[in-house]
Amino acid sequence: MGFGSDDRRGVSLRDIAAFCVVVAALKFAAPFFVPLTLAAILVTVVSPLSTFLVQKRVPPTLAVLIGGLATLAVISAGTVALGLASTQLNDEWPHYSHQGDLLAGKARAWLSAHHVTISVAGPKGPDWVGMATGVLQRAAGVVSDFFIIMLVVFFGLSEVLDLGGKLRKVTDDPEFGFSRVDEIVRKVQTYLLVKSFTSLLVALIAYLVLKVVDVRLALLLAVLLFLLHFVPNVGAVIATIPAVAAAFLDSGPGAAIGVAITMSTSNFIVGNVVEPRLLGRTLGLSSFAVLVSLLFWGWLWGPAGAILAVPIVMVLKVTLEGTRYRRWAHLLAPASHDAPSEQHLPDGTPLPTTMRLRMWASTVTPAPTSVGLGAPPAAAPRSRDPAELKDPSSS
Known about the structure:
Layout: H1 13-28, H2 30-55, H3 60-113, H4 128-143, H5 146-160, H6 163-170, H7 174-212, H8 218-228, H9 235-251, H10 253-279, H11 287-301, H12 303-320, H13 326-332, H14 353-364
Helix pairs in contact: 2-3, 2-5, 2-12, 3-4, 3-5, 3-8, 6-7, 7-8, 7-10, 7-12, 8-9, 9-10, 11-12, 12-13
């Protein structure tokens, strides 16, 4: 099952049983795995900073400490924002409850004038404030699981600095292992940086618009949009609904229409113009794979799983490309007529994806500018003859 092996056998019942056991374990141990996965992603994002400092002759211990402090700043900012949003919801809910009752009374009066009678039996409805507060508290609980996250971050950063030596010991082809790890790190870094930037952009636009129309829950709704924008395809749409409802209750239907148009336009432009230009072909996932991943990880780990779904499936795809199951990775790739074709070295080992993308881009279009928090550690030079890397299709 090592890198480069070529086994064409199908999936056996043993494989299916093993998959079910793994899923059950991930479901049962979600309180442990969610902060662990979040910490691993934070290590991936922050590691270039520590590596850069070491290259500038900063002591490794100090470089790890600086990277850990940067992670601490991110976690603290997220915890404070979620805490303020939860407090604002508790403070402003009586106002929105009163406005909702007034609106319901006007609706009943209008229906009665048109000889339509509505009777409501039982309780008024679900405890919306309790439900919303619970969601925010669960999200804050994931972020504020401070001990596990910071412990993994500090030890993970120290391990990253010695990753090259470990790869040489555990893999038969350390150069290929370097390229695989390099690709995983680069894709996750680029995706998270671009997604954080675009999420912050749409959240700031929404906050300014909501403040202009005098919506009291502007901060809460902006934080909610920032978080849900990490959920592909549907997150921004879900976050727009409560913003429009709050604008309607606070400032009337005109403000609600304005908020709906502005937020929908900004979400559309950012999601369909800005993100594709910044990400380019970095994502390398089909829309169907993203949707299935969103549903699966959302069911498995809740809101945190929905946010982490895309980075997880990216890591899975790149990992599968280096194993005997690499054909399954094609199911996750976009169905594009101009996608890079599968190429192999003379010994049957598939060419690293980064090299295939460069070869394809050089013949079709200039490669997209890399956007990341820092360059990952440079891969060791390959020992193969350059003639072996020549694209067979070019001859």
